[in-house]
Amino acid sequence: MDQLTHLLEGFSVALTPSNLLFLVIGAVLGTAVGVLPGLGSAMAVALLLPVTFSLDPTGAFIMFASIYFGGLFGDSTAGILLNTPGNSSAIATTFEGHRMAKDGRAAKALGTSAIGAFLGGTIACVLVVFFSPAIVRLATVMGPAEYFALTVFAFVAIAAVVADSIVRGLVSLGLGFAVGMVGIDAMSGAERFTGGTPVLFDGISIIVVTVGLLAIGEVLHVAGRIRTAGGNGPFLSPKGSPLLNRREWRQALPAFLRGTAFGVPFGAIPVGGSEVPTFLAYGTEKRLARRRGDADFGTRGAIQGVAAPEAAGNATAGSAMGALLALGLPTSATAAMMIAAFQQYGMQPGPLLFERSGDLVWPLLASLFLGLGILLIINLPFAALWARLLVIPRHYLYAGIAVVAMLGVYAISSRVLDLWMALAIGVVGVIMRHFSLPIAPVLIAAILGPMAETQLRRALAVSEGDPTALVASPFTIVLYLLLAATVAVSVVQHLRHARAERATKARVPA
């Protein structure tokens, strides 16, 4: 098969000493950032993106492959040891993982998390390699109306799923669109919302936006809460062996596979990342535990409750990479950061990427497998070492993050204006966190908004202004029907949640 030949060629590039060094450095840095509470995998990519600017594109993206998964590997560590997940994708893992840690099985929980992340990510990457040609063929027959429908689906589905309120999600989308509108109009060449400032003719750099929202915003948010947060919380040191024995493997392996089955399809559709599949995987294991009478689940902590959501999270990330490369569609905040990295090197992910930049794509796919293996090696025996990062006082930790973030922003173009914009966007990020506005829709809209506008205008130009052309194909009709179903389910869930909260408050005596 052609993809196997291409993949082997990719391995020959990725296995050179310099590229292996980039993989190891990316894995270490990604895991180190992912371990820290509140930062996570998207922050790892945003914070470390400027580090790769001096590398050639192949080396840079090979390094990004391990940063991408390294952040995901680290996300669960803080949740297991501190009951403070590094990212929302690790919340489901935290439920049973922290119970295992309190029961003296922290090392076992961390080992299960690392193995689950490795298996879920590897299976997803195998499927991406074998099915990416089919996705590319599908993408090549899509016109402007189909691409516009895909972007609308991404916008609304993410706004509906990742926010507590659909209104909050739409507000975040609006902020992202506002950022994406700044600069030169791609169709007419007119300048928009630049205030006559030549520096803004190319728009606001997505790196400035992401570092400002994720890094500076989080630093300012934490700085305002350090005195009331009471430190990092009780730290449970991982002791013992992280390796699973035969009985534990028999318990965990079916959960690994069930979690992967949940994660793979969700990575290919824009529903906000891995939150939904990880909770579905955890809920399935909880129901199965109740059926078999497992007394550890929900009390001492069950290994299946860590295995399934962790495999689901990394499987989602693996298939999200396939959707990103073949369709140019980021399905999560972390994938949005990856598309920003491609654009920084003048490349646009999509079906033509495999033809025009095959010498980059296949080493990148090969490095996903290598990166997962390296991450398993450095996470299983060194889990206790990563955990020591969690005892660093927060005021030192976040001050260092602020310095690194600002240096990275300045390194992009050596402009002081970028520093001021990053700081201003960071203040907006603090306000968004205060009012529970989700960050992911802002990043998705800022990146996909200009493309959605261009595709809409092309579709209307081809149809001479006939809006029915936007729903003229079976593909667009199916997408809009799925979108309507997604919004309806999300509204019902939000209403149930609000009703349950009101009922709980009503039962509490005044």
Automatic annotation (TrEMBL):
Signal peptide boundaries: none
A Pfam family this chain is assigned to: TctA
Residues passing through the membrane, by range: 20-49, 61-82, 109-135, 147-163, 170-187, 199-220, 323-342, 362-384, 396-413, 419-448, 469-492
Protein name from the UniProt record: DUF112 domain-containing protein
Domain DUF112: 20-443
Keyword terms, alphabetized: Membrane, Transmembrane, Transmembrane helix
This protein's record includes keyword Membrane: yes
